[in-house]
């Protein structure tokens, strides 16, 4: 009799355990869903990436424009406005910046040049010309490191502040507070640090492989990417080291204009996004 009673107790305990386990499992799944919805930008290192749909439409980023905006970060502008925001990353000077500036001047287009310390040190005259001709100069960090590996704000701040100081020495003007993460590598901590330092983080919605100096795309390959994937509100990333870009920019700007596009500045993009 005692044995039978003990069996009943064991059976009841087993049922109770399974019930508790099931409830705990449902709670855990709910908790994970809540965590994922709260942290829709991953906390660890991430590479900026894009997914393209139909020609002429905005691509999707691996983080939405709405989520990025919480950190004063942007990758695309208004989807109904046929406006292009032209940007160049400047790692070093190899003779292509001058023809790029010539083409921009011819078309009266203001661009943003994201510079690193090496470019500032070796090409101060080019930087002065950018400022004199109405372009914006942005911050691409002094040493071009993987900023997502930097976990303290003091180190992050030094990378951007050193660029500011060098720029101000050269131009006697204050630098704009636009920041582009080197190689598009970022983390939530990076975005928060940039925001804390009063910077807007600028990604892009259109780029192509133009940075290999000894393996440049042909003009035809460049046109295929830059004309076929252009879209309203595009933040275009080009590299000032590209001989192809220097060769085609005049005609490229003409072709974009013929497609009905005009050109805006990052200052305008941010102001419109916050209006």
Task: Note down, in words, how this protein is organized.
It is a single chain. The chain is of the alpha/beta class and 275 residues long. Helices cover 47% and strands 15% of the residues. The chain contains ten helices and twelve strands. The strands form four sheets. Strands 5, 6, 7, 11 and 12 form a five-stranded parallel sheet that branches. Strands 4-10-8 form a three-stranded parallel sheet. Strands 1-9 form a two-stranded antiparallel sheet. Helix 3 packs parallel to helix 9 and helix 8 crosses helix 9. It is globular and about 45 Å long. The relative contact order is 0.18. The N terminus is likely disordered.
Q: End-to-end distance, in Å? A: 80 Å
Tell me about the biggest sheet? Answer: 5 strands, parallel
- Total helix count? 10
Strand content: 5-15%
Helix content: 40-55%
What is the residue-averaged pLDDT? 88
Task: Name the poorly predicted regions.
Answer: 1-42
Total DSSP E strands: 12
Structural class computed from helices and strand pairing: alpha/beta
Choose one word for the global shape: globular
- Computed over alpha carbons, the radius of gyration is 25 Å
Order of helices and strands: HEEEHEEHEHHEHEEHEHEHEH
Short description:
By secondary structure, the chain is α/β, with parallel strands linked by helices. The chain has helices at 2-38, 65-69, 97-107, 117-122, 124-132, 153-171, 188-196, 219-228, 243-258, 266-273; strands at residues 46-47, 50-51, 60-61, 73-74, 83-90, 112-115, 136-139, 178-179, 185-186, 200-202, 234-239, 262-264.
């Amino acid at each position: 009799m005692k044995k039978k009673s003990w069996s009943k107790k064991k059976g009841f305990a087993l049922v109770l355990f399974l019930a508790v386990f099931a409830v705990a499992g449902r709670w855990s799944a709910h908790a994970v869903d809540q965590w994922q919805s709260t942290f829709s930008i991953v906390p660890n290192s991430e590479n900026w990436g894009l997914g393209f749909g139909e020609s002429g439409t905005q691509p999707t980023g691996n983080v939405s424009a709405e989520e990025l905006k919480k950190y004063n970060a942007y990758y695309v502008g208004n989807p109904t406005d046929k406006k292009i925001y032209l940007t160049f990353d400047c790692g070093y000077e190899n003779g292509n910046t001058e023809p790029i500036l010539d083409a921009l001047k011819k078309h009266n287009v203001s661009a943003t040049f994201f510079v690193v310390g090496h470019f500032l040190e070796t090409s101060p005259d080019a930087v002065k010309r950018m400022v004199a001709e109405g372009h914006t100069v942005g911050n691409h960090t002094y040493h071009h490191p993987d900023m997502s590996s930097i976990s303290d704000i003091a180190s992050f701040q030094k990378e951007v502040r050193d660029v500011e100081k060098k720029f101000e020495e050269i131009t006697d003007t204050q630098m704009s507070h636009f920041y582009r993460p080197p190689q598009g590598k970022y983390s939530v901590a990076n975005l928060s640090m940039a925001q804390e330092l009063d910077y807007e983080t600028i990604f892009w919605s259109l780029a192509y492989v133009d940075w290999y100096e000894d393996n440049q795309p042909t003009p035809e390959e460049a046109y295929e990417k830059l004309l076929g994937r252009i879209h309203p509100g595009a933040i275009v990333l080009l590299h000032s080291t590209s001989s192809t870009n220097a060769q085609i920019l005049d005609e490229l700007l003409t072709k974009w204009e013929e497609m009905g596009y005009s050109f805006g500045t990052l200052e305008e993009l941010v102001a419109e996004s916050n209006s």
